Amino acid sequence: MDLRKLSAQSDQEESLPQSAAKTTICPVCQQQCRPGELLCPKCGFAFMRQGQTHVIDSGDSPTLEPVNRPLYAGLVASPTLITLMIEGQQMVVPITEQIIMGRSCVTDNSQPDVDLTPFGAGEKGVSRGHVQFSCKGPLVYITDLGSLNGTRLNGTALIPEVPRLLRDGDSLQLGKLMITVKL
Q1: Whether residue 44 sits in one domain with residue 121
Q2: Considering the chain, what is the average pLDDT of its residues?
Q3: Do residues 31 and 69 share a domain?
Q4: Share of the chain above pLDDT 70, in %
Q5: 80 and 166, same structural domain?
Q6: Domain holding 102: CATH number?
Q7: Is 88 left (phi over 0), alpha (psi -120 to 50) or beta?
Q8: What is the pLDDT of residue 42?
Q9: What is the C-alpha to C-alpha distance for residues 134 and 155, in angstroms, rounded to an integer?
Q10: How many CB atoms lie within 10 A of CB 115?
Q11: Closest listed residue to residue 64, CA positions, set 143, 174, 183
């Protein structure tokens, strides 16, 4: 093999522009940016995906022991309001046919009906659309919406997309965020 040809080929590769597959084009100013850039050097647009749910280590997560509650604890006279105790604060949530609870995202226009961002939801692994509350007659159900870090009801992991009866005094764990329910 001729070393001059190899050296010339190497010089040509270095002078070639980066391939489109390896570069990032800024959607704001159309600046071609190097691979791995977090910010556009021209306009400052952030390339990082802020909308992704923070993955938590399940070993660091507090877990609750499963608790059996009587069925009648799920019956409510008027399932129009649910009180949630979150980090020592009380949040009253009006329940219609269904309510989505999660965290807001600056890069996504879809917002949950109940935003848990003020409670550190992003750092605690709460998804944008984490759970859904729904009413069926005098009963209130909770459904995990396929969240990344999962939901626990009284210490038991919920199966995604399967509604579970919610009762007065139940404990919810969304990622690492702990919530007590009052019906």
Answers
A1: no
A2: 78
A3: no
A4: 68
A5: yes
A6: 2.60.200.20
A7: left
A8: 81
A9: 21
A10: 17
A11: 174
Question: Is residue 2 a part of any domain in this protein?
Answer: no
In the block, which residue shows the tokens 């009648």? Answer: 72
Q: Are residues 45 and 131 in the same domain?
A: no
pLDDT per residue over 43-65, tens digit each?
Answer: 777 766 555 666 666 665 555 55
Q: How far from the centroid of its chain's Cα atoms is residue 134's Cα? A: 20
Which pLDDT tens digit goes with each residue over 95-150? 778 899 999 887 766 789 999 999 999 899 999 999 999 988 788 899 999 999 99
Q: Are 26 and 33 in contact (CB under 8 A)?
A: yes
Model pLDDT, residue 171: 95
Query: What's at 119, amino acid-wise?
Result: F
113 and 141 inside one domain: yes
CA distances from residue 144 to 7, 88, 107, 126, 134 in whole angstroms, order as listed: 59, 23, 23, 11, 11
Say whether both 43 and 95 belong to one domain: no
Which residue segment(s) compose the domain that 122 sits in?
58-182
Number of domains in the chain: 2
Same domain, 125 and 174: yes
pTM: 0.60
What is the spatial distance between Cα 147 and Cα 132, in angstroms, rounded to a whole number?
Answer: 11
